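Deliverable D4.2, example record:
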Amino acid sequence: MFINRKFPNTRLRRLRSSSNILDLVSEKRLSSDDLIQPVFIKEDIDGTEEIESMPGILRHGKSSILKEVESIVRSGVKTIALFPVVNSSKKDSKGSEATNKNNLMCESVRLIKENFPEVIIIADVALDPYTDHGHDGIIKNNYVDNDLTLDILRSQSLVLAEAGADIIAPSDMMDGRIGFIREALENSDYKNTILLSYAAKYNSKFYGPFRDAVNSASNLGTSSKSSYQMSPYNSDEALHEVAMDINEGADIVMVKPGMPYLDIVSLIKNTFKIPTFAYQVSGEYSMLKLAIAKGWLDNQVMLESLISFKRAGADAILTYSAKEISMEINKK
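Output generated by the structure prediction step:
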């Protein structure tokens, strides 16, 4: 017998009828545990410096870094990622300062660990903050030489592990560097030091404000990193990169940038079932912040953008808005 239904049998709006119901049936959650706050540290400054291209983000000197970490901890965020701004006088063609066990990064790691031992510190491993040409490796015959670079990355990783970094994060995209670094850590009895590989780091135009922040933009000039960072056109290559890095000893893998590459985050997570992080990079952050400041977008778009990372499969997100969003989530 045919029944002429006057009303829909299924009403999905029932599950949207109140905020409590929405919370009850939410498929994904974003918490403070998912957020990682990048922090810029700079030599020879008293207090802080504004970064013009990154609204609300500061470079921190030794006198302000502990206050900043305390503020991050109070927000509920437990993990920070450190990036150095090195004096130009200490930069050379080989990035030699990167292996100095008393350099800015190592001193900062020790200082933070002494005062906040519970904070997880991710230490960036790459040569671009330390080279006078702005590249992530050593240049030979006008080309970033992969194998020459591996030795200095290994030494850089060891001094950071010795300083107390919990997670070593190679972001340079040299082939084989995860295996080199893992072997060095094992042989030097840093067996529990975690390796977070920037496994799928794309040659993106979204990095501009970051390069301003670490003062590497002027060194790099018009030069391209396309010979070692991935082409934005490729996705199968990302799987190849991740497979190599897992095989070499990576504990966690990273996709960078974030929102323009959420398909890659999902692809990697679904393929390898390994902890997968994503980086909401400086260009993503700044364009949202500027649009919010202009009144073109609602302030909630930053939270919405981070939810998209979780929906795609990211286990944690590096974002310059980590502290701000954590306070919003926790209503602090």
